Amino acid sequence: MSSAPERPRLHVVDLTAADGAAVFGFLVPRLHAQMDGQYGTPAYRTAAALDAIVRRAEFAVRHHADNLAADSFYDRGERLRCLHSLQDAWNTLMDAVFAWREEQGYDTARWVHIDYLDALDAARGEALEAQVQAEIDAQRPAPKKR
To answer: How far, in whole angstroms, is CA 34 from its chain's centroid?
Structure first.
C-alpha cells in the first residue's frame, strides 16, 4: 500500500475553460507536426481528423464551462444538461490526449476522465456501485466443500 496521499478527485464542476485550452495548446501542435509536409497521406488524414475532433471538443468545453461560470440557467434541468455536455466534451478531449500521457507537459493530475458531476454525485454513484456489488456477491453460490 502506498503512503502517498490520494490526489483530490476531479469533478465536472471543477472544470474551467482554461482546462480545455490547456489540452488544446498541448495537443494541437503535436497534431500539426504530424500533418506538416505529409498532405494527403494516411498520417495527415488521421491527424487532421483528430484535430477536428479536438477543436470541436475544446470549443464545447469552453462554451459549457463559461455557461456554468455565468450560472444563468433557466432551471436545474438546463444546468444539468450543461454539466453533462461539459463532461462529454471533456472526456472526448481526454480520449484524444491520453496517447501523449508519457510526454513532458502532460498534466497527469488534471487531465483525467471525469465520472461524476460533483462530490455528492460521486458519493451516490459509489454507494450504488457498492450496493450492486454486494447484491452480486450475495447471489454467488457458496464454494463447494471438498
So the answer is: 24
